[in-house]
Amino acid sequence: MCPMGHIKTPRHSPLPPMPATTTPPFTALWRQHDFADTAARIRSATTADVERALARAARSTPSSATALTPDDLAALLSPAAAPFLEHMARLANRATLARFGRTMQIFAPFYLTNACVNICTYCGFSAQNKIPRKILNDAEILADTAVLKRLGIDHVLFVTGETTRVGRAYFSNAIRLLRPHFSSISMEVQPMTTDDYASLASDGLSAVIVFQETYDPSTYARHHLRGPKADMVNRLETPDRLGQAGLKKIGLGALYGLSDWRAEAWFLGQHLRHLERTYWRTKYSISFPRLRPHAGQEIEVTPFDERDLVQTICAFRLWSHEVELVLSTRESPRFRDHAIHLGITSMSAGAKTNPGGYSAEPESLEQFAINDDRSPAEIEAALRARNYEPVWKDWDSTYDGARPAKTSEREPVH
């Protein structure tokens, strides 16, 4: 039996469509706040503002965590909060243990293709990089599946570049291949339509991750030079489409290092709250990716060090007791081991960031360099040494109510 923090009542997927809502998409709120003005307002927060926010956080419970105001989040992200970091960490740890227990969900990314039509300055898959492109076929998908199963992985996040060469039909087929072997399947791909998401949820898709990268329009335009990803508003409205489609879980995140991290985190917090209130049947996760070395041009990185990351993680836990907080292998083993006690509830393990990287293509292009190359078994040992329970199977696909796979579709894994 899974530890109490991760027990879930069986339910069908996709979730019943949300009733028609008059709530406008998040873009309406986003347009009301200038990014530079928001950054300046956060920097102007005082010690008294931080103390007020922490007092409210100390009184909050999972059912009343939304009592924190946008001004409270600004204070917790401000320079004035730096002297209170240990206190923030204690409150964040307390809130996490109360909701999730001493558990850590384990997953692995599953890269299906590095083909991409976008030109993005920070990504190794950018179309301007003259490197071999690969789209995994059925046999190659099953080869990586076999390796991941031997490693003990039961929850995968499949990832692609953005290209018309892979779309709804390709993703549906990938889900068909993966579903007999993994209890939970998530994806991080190009923005799609509400109908596409609803169809894939019926196929057995559990969650979709969509990183906004940056909430600053000028920064977004500077780093997304060509391709469909250059449409910032379309990407910004994607989580609303996911909520309308009835996905069980939606993952959000900003890419820290592109712009002012305090303002990015504040906008991300408002995005999360909008979704939690509008699509209240859905679960949410927040990831904290930092820029890592990658193939292609060098770009200027806005400072965002480990202490800043700790402050951001703690602020988000105090902002929402229910949200899952995710930390990837972009971070060092030392930092990830420390972050266990800060509010993180989900970690990737044994990650490869290139298509076919688990089996036949160890040298193909990575999206970014990883920093924690420990195996899933080593991650498990590190967690148990700290009295935490790794959760390999957080959700069973038999509860999904997905379209059943035919016997002939249950491809063997050797």
Commentary on this structure:
- The protein has 414 residues and is an alpha/beta fold.
- The chain has one domain (82-399): Aldolase class I (TIM Barrel).
- The protein contains 15 helices and eleven strands.
- The protein has an eight-stranded parallel β-barrel with strand order 1-3-4-5-7-8-9-10. It has a two-stranded antiparallel sheet with strand order 2-6.
- Helix 13 links the parallel strand 8 and strand 9.
- Helix 3 crosses helix 4 (70-76) and helix 8 (194-203) packs across helix 11 (238-245).
- The two termini are 28 Å apart.
- The model is unreliable at 1-13 (pLDDT under 50).
Outline of the structure:
With 414 residues, the protein is an alpha/beta fold.
What would the keywords be for this entry?
11 strands; 414 residues; eight-stranded parallel beta barrel; globular; disordered N terminus; two-stranded antiparallel sheet; alpha/beta
What is the total number of structural domains? Answer: 1
Mean pLDDT: 89
Radius of gyration: 20 Å
Strand content: 5-15%
What about the largest sheet?
Answer: 8 strands, parallel, barrel
N/C terminus separation: 28 Å
Specify the structural class: alpha/beta
At the fourth level of CATH, the homologous superfamily is Aldolase class I
Q: Tell how many strands the DSSP assignment holds.
A: 11
DSSP helical segment count: 15
Poorly predicted runs are 1-13
Question: What CATH architecture do you see?
Answer: Alpha-Beta Barrel
Work out the helicity level. Answer: 25-40%
Q: Tell me the strand order in the biggest sheet.
A: 1-3-4-5-7-8-9-10
